[in-house]
Design brief:
six-stranded mixed β-sheet, 9 strands, mainly alpha
């Protein structure tokens, strides 16, 4: 490092040390990851990774990199942040001068040290991951090139045009989309010949593809190709936001004229393209948009590559080239349906090798396929494969293995097939890029795609999960734990979360508290809460409580956390608490807490709670809330009171309530009394109260008077009231009903039931007439809904399990899971009272990782609905094993050894309130729980 660069390094490093010391003195944590998070927030709003800061400020000054000119504003934001933490006022001119001088010296570095390498130096296509081709005996004594002759097709012309635009000075991005081994990477390789010698190529892969891309992207200069073969490995990082940050960085690079032109060349499988470019469901505003940056980068820049040679011109060119290349001739003769590139890459031979491999080699390959299905890799450690393989071998096969079975099986699985790579290939680093501490093996794409689909509904065995927990990279454990959780493998998921949590992963600590709460293991959830709290991490129990409130059957667990929050004086959760108590039919408590919430202006509108109870069929609860409204002077709630009393079979009591208020002069109650009397078949009495309401100024009552007059045969007087309703009240329906009275307009409601009611907007779907008829014993065939639930799938299941007709089986269970027919399958199961089949189907979908539906939770609800309470409780507390059985009871307490505060990673922002752990001697509901 030169003198100017060292001066910048020393000043910035000293500022960081002062910021760190000030944070520690104030009792706050400091890390470069925390710096990264703070820079993303206002007022800075910049993306600067902790790794990039470490590149600028390593422990060894000689290894430091000077920030590029494109990073100048990010450096200034960093200086401002650290200065604020240190309690200093930064001098912008001084810092910019320091940086400008360092950058000026940096600009004189030689081209050989720039990011990437000159394209002219890339002479090995396999270094850029072009597939090797099959071998074939030459027809004459000639030396064949490493790759078969290339046959340009229509997509190549489009690709060459895009590359030419980049050469002319316009930054471009193009992503070739097609399945495995269709020639995507080869097409990109062939396009490189258009680039001038001064162009460079950058292929980020170490330490991982997305991390490498993110760490060095700011160093990319003009005339650079960014080589993103299998772009999903860079952009689809479900366990973190690294992929989105890579996409954002590429978008910024493409639009920065000072760093162009650049050319982003990528390849991707169609299923990954669909996932990255899918728009979120517009009807679900709460659902996150996980790939917004990737979608913005990709959409409009796709270049589809045909999977087969089907165009006549392409086929002719193929046969012409095959005359000089026996590999093409061999593929043209044997490939099915024109899939030349797949055959050249050894696809069919790989499948043949897979199906005929010895048991141990087949077990290693199956373990690798299932590991990829779980999101591990793509580079897999051999120890993982060795441990997992036992789960794919029968006892007899396992006992017959030789002492060096693993080496033999690995050699067989890695054996090249017709010269192309084998099923498993050792991952090797290229010269100058470092070497991994341990070897890794990669599964052939073709097997991953084709055999992976065949194994899609098979549950990976327990030994694979164990091997993954012990030997997969720690960075993969978070996503692996989430996958196990979605599959209902709660014991396995807990083990993974526990390992992360005891290592200081704060997101795992949060996940464990919610995870155990959903399983009704509240004592253990509280223990983990205390474990995190003692280490200085505050679990976000407010979010957990709200999440639990939305889960069926988790109300008691949500109340536990709301109790804790309320005890700490957090009044912001009072509305959520009231809603939860109301939904659990704990109405008296909800009323009391709502009064307390009103004291801090946080109460819930009783009408909201009454309407929700009505929708869910909780008439007693709705009645209580409507009465609360009525007692507070809201006369519009009287109809709600009356409707709920009718639903409960207490029509006379409903009428008494309305008449009491009507006789006291309540105009609204007069009209409602008229409505109920009409429903009870007393039109004369109804007419009396409608008249009184009209005389008191209720214009809506005009048309009601007319309707009652018409009903008792007073046509002329009815016509008069209809005219008044139209003229004085502006009622748009009055004249139409008057014409219907005269017979000039057909009455579309003539076929309606004599007991039909007009309830108003909210109660339009509540058939009060049916309820009244039920009370009189004259109802006909219609039935009252039995199972109103919130979650669509669970509501369907619970209702159908209780509505079966018995008898019959069907073959639909053998079909592959399809989100679109899931409800149909479950409906059939419910209709035929095949509860055990429904449970098995839920377990099968969970084991296969079906992407939609909480299958573990659904199975728990099914068991409860079928009266199998003990089974339901065992499943809820323990989850499934990979073989489909319910796990034996297991413990979930945190370790006795406390977690050290300095071990915490990815800390959340501190809560507004200082929280305390709940006491351990709680007996029932503590005193503070009573409002």
């Amino acid at each position: 490092m030169n003198e100017q660069g060292r001066a910048f390094y020393d000043q910035l490093r000293a500022l960081e040390k002062r910021a760190e010391a000030a944070r520690h003195k104030a009792g706050q944590l400091y890390s470069r990851r925390e710096t990264e998070q703070a820079l993303r927030a206002a007022p800075y709003r910049v993306e600067l990774s902790g790794q990039r800061i470490s590149d600028w400020l390593p422990d060894d000054p000689g290894a430091a990199k000077v920030p590029s000119s494109a990073s100048s504003e990010k450096v200034w934001a960093l200086v401002q942040l650290w200065s604020r933490w240190a309690g200093e006022e930064p001098r912008e001119r001084q810092w910019r001068t320091l940086l400008d001088r360092a950058q000026s010296a940096r600009a004189h570095r030689t081209a050989s040290t720039s990011l990437g390498r000159p394209v002219a130096l890339f002479t090995d296509p396999f270094a850029l991951e072009v597939h090797k081709a099959i071998e074939a005996e030459p027809t004459r004594a000639v030396t064949l090139p490493v790759l078969p002759a290339y046959i340009p097709r229509a997509h190549d012309a489009r690709l060459r045009a895009i590359v030419s635009e980049a050469v002319s000075g316009v930054s471009r991005v193009v992503v070739l989309v097609s399945g495995s081994s269709t020639g995507k990477t080869r097409a990109c390789w062939e396009a490189l010949e258009l680039l001038p010698d001064e162009w460079r190529l950058w292929h980020p892969i170490d330490p991982s593809r997305p991390e490498a891309a993110l760490a060095e992207m700011q160093e990319i200069g003009p005339s650079t190709v960014i080589w993103l073969n299998e772009a999903q490995h860079y952009l689809l990082t479900s366990a973190s936001d690294v992929g989105e940050r890579v996409a954002a960085g590429l978008r910024e690079l493409l639009r920065d004229p000072g760093r162009g032109p650049v050319l982003v060349l990528g390849t991707i499988w169609p299923e990954y393209w669909a996932e990255l470019t899918a728009y979120p469901d517009p009807s679900d505003r709460k659902k996150a948009d996980p790939h917004a940056q990737a979608r913005a980068l990709l959409v409009g820049h796709e270049l589809p590559v045909p999977a087969a040679f089907t165009e006549p011109g392409d086929v002719d060119a193929l046969h012409a080239a095959a005359a000089a290349d026996p590999r093409l001739a061999y593929a043209a003769e044997r490939a099915e349906e024109g899939q030349i590139t797949q055959y050249l890459a050894g696809g069919p031979a790989l499948l043949e090798h897979y199906h005929t491999a010895p048991a141990a080699a087949r077990a290693l390959i199956d373990a690798a396929i299932d590991a990829r299905r779980l999101g591990l890799g793509p580079a897999l450690p051999p120890t993982l494969l060795e441990v997992a393989a036992g789960g794919y071998l029968a006892d007899t096969q396992w006992n017959q293995l030789s002492d060096n079975w693993f080496e033999e099986a690995l050699a067989d699985a890695a054996r090249p097939v017709r010269g192309a790579r084998g099923a498993l290939t050792r991952v090797r680093s290229r010269h100058g890029e470092g070497s991994p501490a341990h070897p890794r093996y990669r599964l052939a794409d073709y097997l991953e795609q084709h055999v992976g689909q065949a194994r899609a509904r098979l549950s990976p065995p327990t030994m694979l999960w164990t091997a993954a927990a012990d030997h997969a990279a720690s960075s993969e454990h978070t996503e692996l734990a989430a996958i196990a959780q979605r599959r209902g493998l709660r014991r396995i998921s807990f083990g993974l979360y526990r390992s992360l949590a005891t290592d200081g992963d704060t997101s795992a600590l949060d996940a464990l508290v919610e995870f155990l709460s959903v399983m009704a293991r509240t004592d253990e959830a509280l223990a983990w809460y205390r474990y995190a709290n003692d280490a200085g991490h505050t679990v976000d129990i407010r979010t957990i409580a709200r999440t639990l409130s939305s889960f069926l059957g988790c109300g008691d667990e949500a109340l536990l956390w709301y109790q804790l929050l309320v005890s700490e004086g957090d009044s912001s959760v009072l509305p959520d608490l009231v809603r939860l108590l109301a939904s659990m039919s704990r109405t008296e408590e909800a009323l009391a807490w709502n009064r307390r919430a009103a004291e801090v202006e946080a109460s819930v509108d009783p009408r909201e709670l009454a309407e929700q109870a009505t929708v869910e069929g909780r008439a007693e609860d709705a009645l209580a809330w409507y009465r609360c409204m009525a007692e507070s002077g809201d006369s519009t709630a009287l109809r709600g009171v009356a409707v709920m009393l009718v639903r409960l079979g207490r029509s006379e009591e409903a009428l008494a309530v309305l008449l009491q208020h009507a006789q006291a002069g309540d105009v609204f109650a007069m009209g409602e009394a008229g409505w109920l009397l009409a429903e009870l078949g007393r039109p004369e009495d109804a007419l009396t109260w409608y008249r009184r309401a009209a005389e008191m100024g209720d214009h809506f009552a005009y048309r009601c008077v007319a309707q009652m007059l018409a009903r008792v045969g007073h046509t002329e007087e009815a016509r008069f009231w209809y005219q008044r309703a139209a003229k004085e009240a502006g009622d748009p329906y009055a004249l139409q009903e008057a014409r219907q009275l005269e017979g000039t307009v057909p009455d579309n409601r003539a076929a309606a039931s004599k007991d039909g009611s007009q309830l108003g907007e909210f109660f339009a779907d509540d058939d009060v007439s049916w309820l009244l008829a039920k009370e009189r014993g004259t109802q006909k065939s219609r039935q009252e809904p039995a199972f109103p639930m919130g979650h669509d799938l669970i509501r369907t299941l619970w209702g159908l399990v209780g509505a079966g007709r018995g008898g019959g089986t069907f073959s639909v269970l053998g079909r592959t899971y399809d989100e679109l027919n899931a409800d149909q399958v479950l409906r059939l199961l419910g209709e035929h009272r095949l509860t055990d089949h429904a449970l098995a189907w839920c377990q099968s979908n969970a084991a296969a990782g079906a992407p939609h539906g909480d299958w573990w939770g659904t199975a728990h609800v099914l068991l409860k609905a079928d009266g199998r309470t003990d089974e339901a409780q065992r499943l809820r507390r323990n989850g499934w094993e990979p073989d489909g059985s319910v796990s034996h009871p297991w413990q979930a307490l945190p370790p006795e050894t406390p977690l050290r505060p300095e071990a915490l990673r990815r800390p959340h922002p501190a809560s507004e309130t200082t929280r305390k752990s709940p006491s351990s001697d709680e007996g029932g509901e503590p005193e503070w729980w009573r409002p």
